[in-house]
């Protein structure tokens, strides 16, 4: 079923209704072959990026992309992805069906050629290929998935017949055989990843899969995309049935169908925002071979949200299409603001940063012979995309302003406010970020800096309060570890402009200590510490301070996070003594595992013994052990300030013993949304989020 607030799926046409007659005959001769398959298992990272969770899920994207490309070409309108028992995944579409005839070059079935040969598929060969537009640059999808799976089965419905072939670790078990008749067209691919390759195990992330497929449904409007979690089902018919959802399988499922395309996607991203103007801008046109689709809406916010796609592949590093979009947006807005009188003659033009403030935009291009920069397809490199987007979007935006004058003035005034704020922020930044401060000559007085001047060897601990600051300063390694105590909670910067931020002493101290500056003069190469460690107390206030710091870092210092320089310290929750034996427990599970049969006794004694550890009062450890021989004492740490310097060093600061969690951003769009909900001004959305996720919280109350 569709989620609340999303467009309800319309009844999909029967699979047979999508005809292969829409294009040149798609048969065995459409398949091109470039080279063999064997390197995939030797170096899987070259083909899927990583053998961790991201690489595991990339297998689904590769198979799904083949079905999505059929939909992009107008040959399919229904795709289903199902998680099955035993780690299997099953992807079904109602496209034309993979050709099963004998390939003229390989002399085996075209299906076997596609599944067992690297760089074989219908996406090569230009105008004579099976696809005009596709997401794959390298054409490695199905064969790579097959090579990295212990078992793969493909069932093809085509031309009234149903054919099947199975594979083990990329090799066909037998020839393609006909297994029945059919009235459908389409392809079913079922595979199970190889655990000897994916050593973290076959753990599918339902939320990650749903988010990816929802996004794709927006990008291929008019296509129904369904996802089912049938992992707990014991009787799943996968022997050729076209869709699991139509066979009565009772399991968690979602379907997405959007006629609005990118318009609907903007509405989804702005669900927790207050729009500045009523109408969502939208254009869908083409110039030559480049199809351009753009949608945007400004919100009452200061952070831009700009998503880019090329042939439906997400480009987190943007590329030429985004360059064309920014150029046209800046030029057209300046022209309109001048002609409408919003921007006076005495005022300077809007800059690129001004026009992006508060915008939620999606730029999507589709084109043949697409080129990306790098193996991960994170940045579009096709030059022709820039001109096509600039021309189509610029002309459409000028027309939008003429046809919607109220929206145009609201947007221009929003950007004018950004221009004025930029000037005020620059003045504030110039007064704070003096040259001497940036070079470390005027470091904050609260900072206890380290002796090392090498960023690679230096660490900055951001601690909560003077008490924790005192303990950590005495317990640290002065050579490499710097300490910056914060006084209370820092400003929530989610809706704060730069001038207001820099008026906060706590934020100013942190910015100067890190050395990178901020805003348009940010310079990652000036970072003074290559480990910035957030060490807050294990309570609600500590979690809040940590969230405020992460919000600041994410919004204004994202390259520091992306560079892997931000960490979260994991101090212990308990110090447990049993006779002379001392153990630190970082969770309740560790505590009970250590105590074993004494767990119940220890729990009963905890309230009496907590906080009476005589060792902390300065008594010799041998004396304490003698007094308490056979007894168990448990000290519950509420904050870093309760730990003496030696304990803090031993458990939290010593590189040989400590536990650190590196902060990473797996999904930038989802991270934006969560920060909006938790740190923004939309109280009902925040309340709903907390209520729906309350059971996942680990609270110490």
Structure overview:
This protein is of the alpha+beta class and 701 residues long. It has four domains: 15-259, Histidine kinase-like ATPase, C-terminal domain (Heat Shock Protein 90), CATH 3.30.565.10; 263-429, 2-Layer Sandwich (Ribosomal Protein S5, domain 2); 435-571, Rossmann fold (3-Layer(aba) Sandwich), CATH 3.40.50; 574-636, no CATH class. It contains 23 helices and 24 strands. The two termini are 38 Å apart. The model is unreliable at 1-23, 123-129, 434-441, 604-620 and 622-628 (pLDDT under 50).
Would you count the extended β strands for me?
Answer: 24
Count of domains: 4
Q: Termini distance?
A: 38 Å
Q: What Rg, in angstroms, do the CA atoms define?
A: 29 Å
Which consecutive residue ranges, at least 5 long each, have pLDDT under 50?
A: 1-23, 123-129, 434-441, 604-620, 622-628
Helix content: 25-40%
Annotated CATH homologous superfamily of the largest domain: Histidine kinase-like ATPase, C-terminal domain
Regarding quaternary structure, what we see is single chain
Strand content: 15-25%
- The helix-and-strand class reads alpha+beta
Annotated CATH topology of the largest domain: Heat Shock Protein 90
Tally of separate helices: 23
**Main sheet attributes: strand count, strand direction, barrel closure:** 9 strands, mixed
Report the top-level CATH class of the largest domain.
Answer: Alpha Beta
Residue-averaged pLDDT, rounded?
82
What would you say the CATH architecture of the largest domain is?
A: 2-Layer Sandwich
What is the overall shape?
globular
């Amino acid at each position: 079923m569709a989620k609340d607030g999303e467009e309800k799926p319309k009844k999909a046409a029967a699979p047979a209704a999508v005809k292969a007659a829409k294009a040149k005959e798609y048969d065995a001769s459409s398949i091109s072959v470039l080279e063999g398959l064997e390197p995939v298992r030797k170096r899987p990272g070259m083909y899927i990026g990583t053998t961790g969770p991201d690489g595991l899920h990339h297998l689904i994207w590769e198979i799904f992309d083949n079905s999505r490309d059929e939909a992009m070409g107008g040959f399919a309108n229904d795709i289903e992805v199902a998680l099955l028992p035993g780690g299997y995944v099953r992807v079904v579409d109602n496209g034309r069906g993979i050709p099963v005839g004998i390939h003229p070059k390989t002399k085996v079935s075209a299906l076997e050629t596609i599944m067992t040969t690297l760089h074989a598929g219908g996406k090569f060969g230009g105008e004579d290929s099976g696809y005009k537009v596709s997401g794959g640059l390298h054409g490695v999808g199905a064969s790579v998935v097959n090579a990295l799976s212990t078992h793969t089965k493909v069932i093809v419905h085509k031309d009234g017949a149903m054919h099947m072939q199975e594979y083990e670790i990329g090799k066909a078990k037998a020839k393609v055989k006909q297994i029945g008749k059919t009235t459908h067209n389409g392809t079913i691919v079922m595979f199970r990843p190889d655990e000897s390759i994916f050593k973290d195990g076959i753990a599918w992330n339902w939320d990650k899969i749903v988010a990816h497929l929802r996004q794709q449904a927006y990008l291929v409007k008019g296509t129904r995309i369904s996802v089912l979690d049938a992992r707990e089902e014991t009787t799943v018919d996968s022997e050729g049935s076209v869709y699991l959802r139509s066979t009565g399988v009772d399991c968690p499922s979602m379907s997405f169908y959007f006629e609005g395309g990118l318009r609907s996607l903007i509405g989804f991203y702005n669900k927790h925002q207050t729009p500045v103007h009523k109408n969502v801008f939208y254009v869908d046109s083409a110039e030559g071979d480049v199809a351009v689709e753009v949608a945007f809406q400004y919100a009452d916010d200061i952070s831009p949200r700009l998503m880019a796609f090329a042939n439906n592949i997400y480009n987190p590093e943007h590329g030429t299409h985004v360059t064309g979009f920014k150029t046209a947006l800046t030029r057209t807005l300046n022209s309109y603001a001048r002609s409408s009188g919003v921007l006076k003659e005495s005022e300077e033009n809007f800059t690129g940063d001004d026009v992006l403030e508060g915008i939620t935009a999606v730029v999507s291009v589709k084109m043949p012979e697409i080129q990306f920069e790098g193996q991960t397809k994170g940045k579009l490199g096709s030059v022709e995309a820039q001109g096509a987007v600039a021309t189509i979007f610029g002309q459409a935006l000028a027309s939008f302003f003429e046809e919607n004058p109220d929206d145009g003035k609201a947007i221009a005034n929003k950007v004018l406010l950004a221009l004025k704020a930029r000037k005020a922020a620059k003045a504030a930044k110039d007064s704070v970020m003096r040259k001497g401060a940036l070079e470390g000559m005027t470091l904050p007085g609260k900072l206890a800096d380290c002796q090392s001047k090498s960023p690679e060897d230096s660490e900055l601990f951001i601690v909560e309060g003077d008490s924790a600051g005192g303990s950590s300063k005495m317990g640290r390694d002065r050579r490499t570890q710097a300490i910056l105590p914060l006084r209370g909670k820092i400003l929530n910067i989610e809706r704060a402009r730069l001038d207001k931020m820099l008026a906060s002493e706590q934020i100013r101290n942190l910015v100067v200590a890190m050395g990178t500056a901020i805003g348009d003069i940010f310079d990652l190469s000036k970072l003074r510490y290559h480990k910035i460690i957030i060490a807050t107390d294990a309570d609600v206030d500590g979690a809040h301070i940590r969230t405020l710091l992460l919000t600041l870092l994410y919004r204004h210092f994202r390259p520091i996070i992306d560079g892997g320089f931000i960490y979260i310290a994991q101090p212990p929750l308990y110090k447990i003594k049993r006779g002379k034996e001392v153990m630190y427990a970082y969770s309740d599970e560790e505590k009970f595992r250590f105590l074993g049969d004494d767990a119940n006794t220890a729990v009963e004694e905890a309230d009496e013994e907590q906080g009476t550890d005589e060792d902390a009062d300065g008594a010799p450890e041998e004396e304490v052990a003698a007094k308490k021989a056979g007894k168990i004492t448990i000290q519950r740490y509420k904050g870093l300030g309760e730990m003496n310097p030696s304990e803090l060093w031993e458990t939290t600061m010593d590189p040989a013993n400590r536990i650190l969690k590196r902060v990473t951003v797996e999904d930038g769009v989802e991270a934006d949304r969560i920060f909006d909900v938790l740190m923004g001004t939309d109280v009902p959305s925040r309340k709903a989020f907390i209520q729906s996720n309350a059971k996942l919280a680990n609270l110490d109350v």
